[in-house]
């Protein structure tokens, strides 16, 4: 059940970013070190989005572990190799929290490098 809830949360977050005018460029992008849930383009910025779903936003936020952040950074570096500006590309790391009612809270630039 949690697998399907996670997929539904990712779908909702992707739609949320589209409503804000972003373009989804990848979903569940898999690199050698793991997976990035949603990747969007916002102007010249590439935004890597980690989606967490739980009963509350606070509970969802606790599910972002240091190990997972490291894997996300590794995957993002791998993905950046596919961008025209490569490692010099302008990027941001957001965390999107989805509660039990489907309400989305996006923490922009939540993961600083």
TrEMBL record:
Q: Which UniProt keywords apply?
A: Endonuclease, Hydrolase, Nuclease
Note the InterPro entries from the entry.
Answer: Restrct_endonuc-II-like, tRNA_endonuc-like_dom_sf, UPF0102_YraN-like
Q: Which GO terms describe its molecular function?
A: endonuclease activity; nucleic acid binding
Entry's transmembrane regions:
none
Which Pfam families does this chain map to?
UPF0102 (PF02021)
Family per similarity comment: Belongs to the UPF0102 family.
Protein name in UniProt: UPF0102 protein SAMN04488095_2667
């Amino acid at each position: 059940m949690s697998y399907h809830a996670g997929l539904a949360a990712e779908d909702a977050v992707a739609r949320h970013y589209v409503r804000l005018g972003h373009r989804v460029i990848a979903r569940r992008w898999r690199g050698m070190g793991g997976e990035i849930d949603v990747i969007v383009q916002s102007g010249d910025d590439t935004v890597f989005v980690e989606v967490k779903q739980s009963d509350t936003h606070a509970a969802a936020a606790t599910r972002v572990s240091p190990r997972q952040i490291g894997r996300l950074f590794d995957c993002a570096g791998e993905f950046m190799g596919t961008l025209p500006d490569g490692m010099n590309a302008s990027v941001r790391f957001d965390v999107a929290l989805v509660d039990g009612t489907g309400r989305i809270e996006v923490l922009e630039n939540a993961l600083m490098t």
